[in-house]
Amino acid sequence: MMMPEPPTNDVTTPRAFERNAASEALVRYTTDDLLRFGWVPIMTGVIFAGGAYPIVIGVGGVAVSLCEGVWSLLHGVPADWDSAPAIIATAPFIACAVAVVGMFLTGVIAVFTFPLAHLFLWSLALPANPIRVGAWYGGLVGFIGVLPVSLAASGDVNSSTGWWAWFVLAMGPGLTMPLGQLGGTLGGRRAWQEAVERDARYRRLAAEWQTGLDPPAIGCTGAAEGAATQHLQFRIVHLMWAAVWLSILLTIIRLSGIAYRLVVPVLLGGLAYQAALLWIGQHLIPRLWRRWRAGAANLFHVKQPAE
Fold this sequence. Notes:
Layout: H1 14-19, H2 21-26, H3 33-36, H4 39-74, H5 84-124, H6 130-145, H7 147-154, H8 162-171, H9 173-209, H10 236-256, H11 260-300
């Protein structure tokens, strides 16, 4: 007997989901998403980003040293290249060592911040988009990972060595947050692809058995098919939860004994930087990427001669 074909719908593709405002608005983060949302790929991506951070810092330092040596040679000053072979020989081992340490420290931070991120998303019932949640979570882990350095540098911004404080902030949260967002985005995309495949299996099973089996709502796919477009409506419960989270934050700051004049600028600056990076990654970079691809396609497009 011929089995019926499973239903097809382009909404089950990640790219189509990004264009489907209804599905993104209707699927909310719930307590069930603690296990099936895709936190494992997201956290894995963030941990690998934490391992890449010290490597990026080391590569940048080597590049600066090489530029300094070339600059000295151009101006007739002999450069010290005696230690270059030793550095090149030991660089892979040092990179592996610092990557393991970075991944371990990032993993510890991710384990402790994961329950808070889950409770935050659940309490506010935010849209369950794994890609955007991964980017937000990666930036949060990157910010917390270098928070002590940021607090120490923020106190010297207005001093005579303010330029050094700005440099430390640029190499600290200025670099860890975009790296964390990149790792979280890649992990969220992987989680989204797994959710799409899982949803396709449920649909295929439902089509074969001709049942009304519904796919699980994991922040994706057909959970919102045929539903009217809705948006996040701000309610009293959101205000109450916002007050609760603000109270918890102020309590932690109070118990830590850190002065508010140091913590508040760092938190506000980190929040603004996180929002700016998310906006750039969501709107600006895809637009520039599409323009670059279109320009490259026009540049290398060979017109066929008319017959």
